[in-house]
TrEMBL record:
UniProt keyword terms in alphabetical order: DNA-binding, Transcription, Transcription regulation
Origin superkingdom: Bacteria
Originating gene: nimR_5
Domain HTH araC/xylS-type, first and last residues per copy: 157-255
Organism field: Paraburkholderia metrosideri
PANTHER family named in the record: HTH-TYPE TRANSCRIPTIONAL REGULATOR NIMR (PTHR11019), TRANSCRIPTIONAL REGULATOR-RELATED (PTHR11019:SF159)
InterPro entries, A to Z: AraC-bd, Homeodomain-like_sf, HTH_AraC, RmlC_Cupin_sf
SUPFAM superfamilies referenced in this protein's UniProt entry, alphabetically: Homeodomain-like, RmlC-like cupins
Name assigned to this protein: HTH-type transcriptional regulator NimR
Record bears the keyword Lipid metabolism: no
Pfam families assigned: AraC_binding, HTH_18
Length: 259
C-alpha cells in the first residue's frame, strides 16, 4: 500500500525490489538528517520542500524533483502540506543515475512514469515485461531532464558558521557581515568564491531567489514576500525575479502548479 500512515516508520532499504515507490502527503514535517543505501528521487507534486545537505541547500518547488545519490546525508523540511512522490533505487541501479545531487524539472512523461512506480506494490518484480520498460524509461528520463538552479552551495569556513546555521534568515549586507564575523569584505568574498564558486553578493541574491520561491509556493503574497526579503517595493521584487529567472513570480508559479 503506497499511501502510508505518516506516524509510522518506513525503511526503503529493507526491501529487495529494484525500485520502491511511495506516494503520500505530509504537513509541517522535518525528517531530520538521515541517509539511505538506495538512491532517492524526491518529487514535490504540490507544496514546497527544503532539503539541507552537508554542503548545499536545496529547494523543491512544485513540479521539481531532486536526485539524491546513495549514502548522501540529507534533511527534508516540509512546510504546510506537501503532496510528494518518492522513489528509491537499489544501489546497482543508482549507478546508472547521476553521481551528484541534481534538481530537475519534472515534465509530463516523467511525471506519469513516477506516478506509476510510486503506486506500484513494494514487492513488484521490475526485471521483465512492462515493468522493466517502465523502470528503464524512468531512469532515462531522470538522466535527460532539464536541471534547475535550486541548489545553493554553502561555505564551510568556521567564521561563517552563524550565517549557515540560520538559513531561513535573510543574509545581511556585506558590511554588516564584516562586523559580525570580524573579517574584511575582501576576505569574505574570497572565502565565498573559493568554497561556493560565487561572490557573497551573488550568493545572497541566489538565496533571496530561492527563499522567494519558497514563500510564494507556500501561499504568501508578492507583497509579503517582497517585504520579507527587504525589497523596496513589489515592482522592484518582480523585476529582480524576472532578471533571475526570465519570468514573473505569477507565471513561474502557474507553470509549477500545472500537475
Amino acid at each position: 500500500m503506497p499511501y502510508l500512515d505518516v506516524t509510522g516508520t518506513f525503511d526503503p532499504d529493507s526491501f529487495e525490489a529494484e525500485v520502491i515507490g511511495l506516494a503520500t502527503s505530509l504537513g509541517d514535517h522535518d525528517s531530520g538528517s538521515h541517509l539511505h543505501q538506495r538512491g532517492q528521487l524526491l518529487y514535490a507534486r504540490r507544496g514546497c520542500i527544503r532539503i539541507t545537505l552537508a554542503d548545499r541547500l536545496c529547494l523543491l518547488p512544485p513540479s521539481r524533483a531532486v536526485w539524491i545519490p546513495p549514502q548522501t546525508a540529507h534533511r527534508a523540511v516540509m512546510q504546510q502540506t506537501v503532496d510528494y512522490r518518492s522513489l528509491w533505487f537499489r544501489p546497482d541501479l543508482s549507478a546508472s543515475l547521476p553521481e551528484d545531487v541534481r534538481v530537475i524539472d519534472v515534465r509530463p512523461l516523467l511525471r506519469a512514469v513516477l506516478e506509476s512506480i510510486a503506486l506500484a506494490d513494494f514487492h513488484e518484480d521490475w526485471r521483465g515485461g512492462r515493468h522493466a520498460h517502465l523502470l528503464g524509461l524512468c531512469i532515462h528520463e531522470i538522466c535527460g531532464a532539464p536541471q534547475e538552479a535550486m541548489l545553493l552551495p554553502l561555505p564551510s569556513d568556521r567564521r561563517l558558521a552563524s550565517l549557515t546555521a540560520h538559513l531561513d534568515r535573510m543574509p545581511p549586507e556585506l558590511q554588516v557581515l564584516e562586523a559580525a564575523v570580524g573579517a574584511s569584505g575582501k576576505t569574505i568574498t574570497r572565502i565565498f568564491q573559493k568554497e561556493t564558486g560565487m561572490g557573497y553578493q551573488q550568493w545572497r541574491q541566489q538565496w533571496r531567489l530561492m527563499r522567494a520561491i519558497e514563500l510564494l509556493a507556500t501561499g504568501h503574497s508578492i507583497t509579503y514576500t517582497a517585504a520579507e526579503l527587504e525589497f523596496s517595493s513589489d515592482s522592484v521584487f518582480i523585476a529582480f525575479f524576472r532578471t533571475m529567472l526570465g519570468c514573473t513570480p505569477g507565471s513561474y508559479l502557474h507553470r509549477s502548479q500545472q500537475v
